[in-house]
Amino acid sequence: MRRIMLPFLMLLISVATHAQEKTETKKKDSQEKKTGDTIKLPEQDFFMLLDNDDVEFANNVPIHKIVKDSAVFALFDDPGAAAIDSLWQNELFQSSLYSSLRDSLLNLEYNEVVYNELPTDTLKMRLEKLNAKTPFNVEYNPLLENVIKSYLKRNKKSLERLMALSTYYFPIFEQKLDKYNIPLEVKYLAIVESALNPRARSRVGATGLWQFMFATGKMHGLNVSSYVDERMDPVRSTEAAAEYLSTLYRVFEDWDLVLASYNSGPGNVSKAIRRSGGSKNYWNLRPYLPRETAGYVPAFLATMYIFEYAEEHGFQPPHPQTTFFETDTIQTRRMLSFDQISEVTGVQKEMLQFLNPSYKLDIIPYIEEEKYSVRLPRAQAGFFVNNEEAIYQYAEAQLEEREKPLPQLVESESRIRYRVRSGDYLGRIAERYGVGVSQIKRWNNLRSNNLRVGQRLTIYPRKPVATAQTSSGKSSSSPKFYTVKRGDSLWSISKKFPGVTVQQIKSLNNMNSNSLKPGMKLKLSEG
Fold this sequence. Notes:
- By secondary structure, the chain is mainly alpha-helical.
- 48% of the residues lie in helices and 8% in strands.
- The protein is built from 24 helices and ten strands.
- It starts with a helix and ends with a strand.
């Protein structure tokens, strides 16, 4: 009997001990939570992922931990970036549209364009309707018809990208235009000016969505420093553009002439009026205007027509899931870099650059008499405010570390040849290799910031990772792969491999979303 009871008693003791340990563990966890050492963001504070399978992943798997003294911040993968579809990743952060549309403006086709999908009678009827609801002179003209048909025939994909971008920028424009009692259709002017690229820069130095020259920007309160160029700030530059357009209308009292003078300057328009014998009709002045201005108003009217009749022409732009009204600004009280903000909020650096284009070096400076702010998706803005002091402490700790001697850098003689990929721009390439944009331009005799896919650049990198060499000194010819682990995100993987961006990973692996599954093999380099 004793032999039978003994194992049973041992089992009971084991179960009781396990239960006690479990209770103590729960108590300990509860006490730790009360200390405030760990911050966990509630699920509601995040944007929902496009793929439902990823929601549980994103809210339960920390992507990194920042340790500062006794405080541990458990920060979770940010579904805000994942909730923005591939359009934002693949298209919005590219600057190629500006140069291509600027070239098309200078080389508009005025010869007859065959496009049977738009009969002339239909176009005349639609232009008449547009003319009735806008103060612009939207009258049928064979030249305008050819420009419209040329755009429809050759630029459909580019125009769909611009339509997607417009969902973010047009609310900003309309708000400011309405404030100054300017026709809302003027919002299409920014498409002609910059292809909705806030960092666009022309060959003569005009910069931003509204292409302000340095002096004109200064006249309208747009300051430029080593860190900040307010001509690239969507809100401030739109306010300045509205002021300037309002002034031009008081002079010319004709919106077509306002557009022409915005492009070439009031002086050139007044000269054209004199040379035409006093005519003030834009179409009569065209032969006397600079070449670019001669194509400017037709390009504006063609853009207006296509946006107003996009549905009739079968345009189907993807719809980004974030808008200007889903963002918020926080005035910063310390110097912060985009890398630091990205690290603590989980917002991708590319998104920070898109939302805050006026910071030239991806650094928000701190000057007592100036007010600088950061724009973030609304949910992450709340997280930033709730943890503001901790974020500043983290930034200061990083700054102290930066004062220490840097590791030995690659000698400048180790030259590489870099092939430009889709989505590349000089700032990104310069950051990847630890050099300056001006250095890349000097090494390659570049007169502008424009790049073309496939172009070869000579670079003398300062970052060892950029040399892509093996320990034996021989360059590796095989591509690099990474196997996805549980808890990985594209953003966290890109952080593990310096010089690799989220966009590169998606491009190399033909990915249309941010979804990952454990065990997936990702290509990280072309080899």
